[in-house]
Amino acid sequence: MALSASMVKELREKSGAGMMDCKKALIETDGILEDAVDWLRKQGLSAVAKKSNRVAAEGLIGITIKDNSGAMIEINSETDFVARNELFQNFVKTCSELVLSSKNDIDALQNLPFPNANRSVNEELINNIATIGENMKIRRAEYLEVSKGILISYVHNSVAEGLGRLGVLVALETGVQNNNIQEIGKHIAMHIAATSPTCLTIVD
Question: Which terminus has fewer CB within 10 Å in the chain: N or C?
Answer without folding.
Answer: C
